[in-house]
Amino acid sequence: MYSAIARNKRNTVFIIALFILIIGALGFAADQIWGGGQWGIFVGTLIGASIYALVQYFAAGSQAVMMSGARQIEKRDNPRLYRIVENLSIAEGMPMPKVYIVDDPAPNAFATGRDPQHAVVAATTGLLDMMTDSELEGVMAHEMGHVKNYDIRVTTIVFGLVVAIGLISDILLRMSFFSGGNRNNNNGGGNPIFLVLGIAAMVIAPLVATVVQAAVSRQREYLADATGALTTRHPEALASALHKLGEYGRPMRRQNSTMAHMWISDPTKPGIVDRLFSTHPPIPDRIRRLLDNAAKF
Question: What are the alphabetically sorted keywords of the record (predicted)?
Answer without folding.
Answer: Cell membrane, Hydrolase, Membrane, Metal-binding, Metalloprotease, Protease, Stress response, Transmembrane, Transmembrane helix, Zinc
